[in-house]
Write a structure and sequence with these properties.
Penicillin G acylase, beta-roll domain; Glutamine Phosphoribosylpyrophosphate, subunit 1, domain 1; Penicillin amidase (Acylase) alpha subunit, N-terminal domain; 8-stranded antiparallel β-sheet
């Protein structure tokens, strides 16, 4: 059978005087840009606020923004060339432009006005600053409200929920996939007696993964946080009242159905059912400027489009949440909620098709929800539905979803804390608040814990009263949980082996601080060892707590001290010897410092890095590659890991620190592409300025729109 259609691998005070524009055309809005390039947008109306937000995004990320909107139309290759053709095929195959139009029309009249206002902000910036944008991407102008919907649909539903075959394969190259950390700490475990929230997404540093930080101040709104480039609403945010963050969860919202072809159709419930067939034109710009046309024949079954076909069989794909057009509206309403009951009412709409949400508020409440559009399936477990299921019967064709009440969650647990590091929902706190045996087996994998999750839980368990400063310190932990678990056993095995090379390597590891800080000597060697040692189980990305490499398996009753020991000490010694040879050959010595090998190298900056692989138990995740790929020969630069970090304490006033490590702009020439990199290197955050007076003290530019 043919593989799924490929998708390209992830992917000083100045004042500007008011400009004279008709009120109907402009917001009005005011943007105060602080010295870190964070826009603080003030507007007397919601339309003005969205207008200003679009204007600000275009200013900071214009070229990227317009390209992403063009790709969501399926026009990337037409304007920018062959490299975007596979992306466009995926967009056209899944009818994203058509669905976006229907979703736009399904919005309330008021919310359509807000979407249009955001688009108008983008267009206005482009018209006023034609020289600031790349020549190629200007072909995607003007932007419409439909483009916003199409882009969000493409990113969330057709990458996070249902990536193409190539995107799925690429994701396997990323440690922990597209991951994140979140903590919600209640008053019981907070040194101040106030609830705290940690937001910490780990994603690639390019393409539609890039985050944009802003403050939005309008009628009933005063929210600080981030969104993905091109989204008109904050997706992680905090206010004076509450805050929320999310992680990629283990929801399976993409199902593949095997169809038996017959008489031009397919067998379904004992009869031949015809496909719905459409022809679509893919335009691809050639190197000489000409445009080649390619006709795509899209076959639709009752399950969804056919994504592969061969030898009398076909595979169709069904995606959860395509009947729920209210995702952007829900995001907008979430940042205006005032308390937990309001927030839960908004969450319960389940218009956002995946992501675990963590929440904390000024009243001391904390929440963790396995949020997802989870199809109600007839039977089977998570593993079965992660593969291909029979498509010849209506028994496997789900048509409804689990309700909010049926999803795993916890509110104000006895432990006083909640966390998620992309695990299934069962280990959000201890004791476990949800019995996985009482939920459908297809909802999520059975309980297990990555070493990153174990590190997260251990830090929370071992500190009875956590201050905001301590939370920030823990967030930057580069200690490798795996090293704590096996180094003593490895030392014993090496001592018994008589292997001189292994003993020399062990001497380095014995004095290593077990961290991946810039000056940590031994971390490079340990990582090389872990890669060799984990080869029999498929590499470090498969190095979970349930692998057979350990003498003592993981025990749910002892969740942060198991697994333990080496199942095959002799094989571990051999892995260490081979790792030592590799490190010696590549670096000339075994005790090379982590920061000599791994660098924060981006947009001309080049400084020693810290942070390490999540699968080895680093909470501060960083993934490096020489050319933006996990399997690059000589890893140097970051391409995945810590992006935005926010640590918030819901005191009065709210205390908050944040960082967006790669800077709050991608547009060429902006000083804000690397200006936060020094703080990233120093493992520090910066203050979040939320009052107008604070912002004015740290003002870079003022724009009146």
């Amino acid at each position: 059978m043919k593989p799924l259609l490929p998708l390209l691998t992830l992917l000083a005070l100045t004042a500007t005087p008011p400009k004279s524009k008709p009120q109907a055309e402009r917001g009005p809005a005011e943007i105060l840009w602080d010295t870190y390039g964070i826009p603080h947008i003030f507007a007397p109306t919601d339309e003005g606020l969205f207008f200003g937000y679009g204007y600000a995004q275009a200013q900071a990320h214009g070229d990227l923004l317009l390209r992403l909107y063009g790709q969501a139309r399926g026009q990337g290759a037409e304007i920018l060339g062959e490299r975007y053709a596979d992306d466009d095929r995926w967009v056209l195959l899944n009818s994203i432009p058509e669905r976006a139009k229907s979703w736009y029309e399904a919005q309330t009249p008021q919310f359509r006005k807000l979407l249009d206002a955001f688009a108008r902000g983008v267009n206005t910036y482009a018209a006023e600053h034609p020289g600031a944008l790349g020549a190629g991407v200007k072909a995607f102008l003007p932007v419409t409200g439909i483009d916003l919907v199409a882009h969000s649909l493409r990113v969330i539903h057709y990458h996070f929920v249902a990536p193409s075959g190539a995107a799925r394969a690429a994701a396997e190259q990323l440690p922990d996939g597209n991951g994140s950390n979140t903590w919600a700490i209640g008053p019981k475990r907070s040194a101040s007696g106030k609830a705290m929230l940690l937001a910490n997404p780990h994603l690639p540093w390019t393409d539609f993964y890039v985050y944009f930080e802003a403050q939005l101040v309008g009628p009933g709104t005063n929210a600080s946080g981030i969104t993905r480039i091109g989204f008109p609403c904050l997706t992680m945010a905090f206010t004076d009242d509450l805050g929320y963050a999310n992680t990629v969860n283990t929801n399976d919202g993409q199902d593949f159905y095997e169809l038996t072809l017959k008489d031009g159709g397919y067998l379904f419930d004992g009869a031949v059912k015809p496909f719905s067939t459409k022809e679509k034109t893919l335009k691809i710009r050639q190197a000489d400027g000409s445009v080649r046309e390619e006709i795509l024949v899209v076959k639709e079954s009752v399950h969804g489009p056919v994504v592969a076909e061969s030898g009398g069989k076909a595979v169709a794909m069904r995606v959860a949440g395509l009947d729920r057009p209210g995702m952007l509206q829900q995001y907008w309403d979430m940042c205006r909620a005032r308390n937990l009951p309001e927030f839960e009412r908004i969450l319960s709409r389940l218009q956002i098709p995946m992501f675990t949400f963590s929440y904390a508020d000024k009243d001391g409440h904390i929440l963790n929800l396995f949020n997802a559009a989870v199809p109600k399936r007839e039977s089977g477990d998570w593993k079965r539905w992660s593969g291909t299921v029979p498509g010849n019967t209506s028994k496997t064709l789900w048509t409804s979803y689990l309700s909010y009440a049926e999803l795993p969650k916890s509110i104000d647990p006895p432990s006083g804390w909640l966390q998620n590091c992309n695990e299934s929902p069962w280990t959000m706190t201890f004791p476990m608040p949800n019995d996985f045996r009482k939920f459908p087996a297809y909802l999520a994998p059975a309980p297990a814990m990555s070493f990153r999750t174990q590190r997260s839980v251990r830090m929370l368990m071992e500190d009875e009263k956590i201050s905001l400063d301590e939370l920030i310190q823990y967030k930057h932990s580069t200690r490798l949980e795996l090293a704590d678990r096996i180094l003593d056993d490895l030392q014993t095995a090496v001592a018994a082996s008589g292997d001189g090379e292994a003993k020399a390597a062990m001497a380095v590891l014995s004095t290593w601080d077990r961290q991946t800080n810039a000056d940590s000597r031994g971390a490079v060697l340990f990582e090389a060892f872990a890669k060799e040692w984990a080869k029999p189980v498929g590499g470090i990305n498969r190095l979970g707590t349930a692998t057979p490499l350990f003498a003592k398996p993981w025990d749910v009753t002892d969740p942060v001290r198991t697994p333990d020991g080496l199942a095959k000490p002799d094989e571990a010694v051999k892995a260490l010897t081979e790792a030592a040879r590799q490190v010696q050959k590549q670096h000339g010595r075994l005790d090379v410092a982590w920061g000599e090998v791994y660098r924060f190298k981006i947009h001309g900056a080049d400084v020693p890095a810290n942070g390490g692989p999540g699968p080895l138990g680093a909470f501060r995740v960083m993934t490096f590659g020489s050319a933006g790929r996990a399997n690059a020969a000589t890893p140097v630069r970051p391409f995945h890991g810590d992006t935005y970090v926010a640590a918030v304490e819901f005191s009065k006033p709210v205390k908050a620190q944040a960082l967006i490590g790669y800077g709050n702009a991608s547009q060429s020439g902006s000083p804000h592409r690397t200006d936060q990199l020094g703080l990233l290197q120093q493992q520090k955050l910066r203050p979040v300025w939320r009052t107008r007076a604070e912002v004015l003290k740290h003002l870079e530019k003022r724009e009146v729109l």
